[in-house]
Amino acid sequence: MEILLFLAIASRGQVERSDEENHAQFVEHFHSVLNIGRMASYKVHDSMACALQCMRSTLCYSVNFAVHSDDQGHLCELLPADKYQFPNKFESSASYLHYSIESPCEHNPCTNGATCRPLYGSNGFSCERNARRIVNAAPWLKVSSEKVCFGAKDDSYGHFTIPRRGTIISLKLVYVSGYVSCLTGAIPQGSHWGCRNENELTTLVTNGRNEVIFPRYNDNRSYKLRGYNFNSPELVFNVLSPPLSVATGEEFRIWYRQDLLNGSEHNNAGHTCADVYVLMG
Q1: 117 pLDDT band (50/70/90 cuts)?
Q2: How far apart are CA 28 and CA 174, in angstroms?
Q3: Other C-beta atoms lying within 10 Å of the C-beta of residue 175
Q4: Which domain of life is it from (predicted)?
Q5: Whole-number CA gyration radius for the chain
Q6: Which of 202, 231, 260, 280 has the least CB density, counted as fewest CB within 10 Å?
């Protein structure tokens, strides 16, 4: 049996995260745990402190809070997703309480087999049947009139800002010019988005704190994106679920993986320039 309690860390219902203010309402799911990989863990004195830790990160959407404590406090696990994205991982547990950000999805508003996805920035929701169909059908918003260029070494990331407040569902990079290479001697074989393996990509998109946003759940590794390779004319990243709440003017960065990690970049070369588009909810 699921018991819902509200943990309010502000008076307003929808989530708001910025440098000046953080607020949200969390729903407590009694004796429950979302059994996915955690993004961080802390020892805290109570559930309020656990929720506050979550609100400090734009990538946190729910927490697991250990019922029992030791001399350092209760274990607080910050999670980069919610129970709507991983319903099969939402399990009963006598050892945990699970807290998720309040959403209309709690009341199952979608019909005809559609899946409810919270839009936390607006306190709304979307009903999805096919995530890829949303990306193909919705209008893309170009974030800048100028191309955005990123290099392969010396912290030469490209940056752009979001033109309006809302939620980001996906992001698209459209190749304009240039190349990047992870081996100077292989400059003639430099690519748009990767290194030496045609099917592996090393172009990452982070927020202003260099936390990787695209692709989601990436731990700074090279990755594969179905239907794309290191010389594709564009990259369309998978849909974010839940979507990412953003503020007007919020900064994002495009990085070459080795440059972000400051590792093995001494023999890198080149710059890739791209137009950047976002799909907003």
Answers
A1: confident
A2: 42
A3: 18
A4: Eukaryota
A5: 20
A6: 231
As beta bridge partners, residue 97 has: 65
N-to-C CA span, the chain: 33
Q: Count CB neighbours of 79 within 10 A.
A: 27
Question: For the segment 165-184, what is each residue's pLDDT rounded down to a tens digit?
Answer: 999 989 999 999 988 988 77
Contacts of 249 (CB under 8 A, 6+ apart): 161, 162
Q: Which two tokens mark 173? A: 């990079």
Task: Please tell me the total number of residues recorded for the chain in this structure.
Answer: 281
Which residues lie closer than 8 Å to 216 by C-beta, 6 or more apart?
Answer: 80, 237, 238, 240
Paired with 159 in beta bridges are 253
This prediction has a pTM of 0.56
Task: State the amino acid at position 109 in one-letter form.
Answer: P
Q: Which residue type occupies 183? A: L
pLDDT tens-digit profile of 6-26? 454 443 334 555 544 556 788
When mean pLDDT is compared across 5-14, 100-109, 176-185, 231-240, the lowest value belongs to 5-14
What HEC string does the chain produce?
CCCEEEEECCCCCCCEECCCCEECEEEEECCEEECCCCCEEEEECCHHHHHHHHHCCCCCCEEEEEEEEECCEEEEEEECCCCCCCHHHEEECCCEEEEEECCHHHHCCCCCCCEEEEECCCCEEEEECCHHHHHHHCCCEECCCCCEEEECCCCCCEEEECCCCEEEEEEEEEEEEEEEECCHHHHHHCECCECCCCCCECEEEEECCCCEEECCCCCCCCECCCCCCCCCCEEECCCCCCCEEECCCCEEEEEEHHHHHCCCCCCCEEEEEEEEEEEEC
CA-based nearest residue to 188, from 273, 270, 274: 270
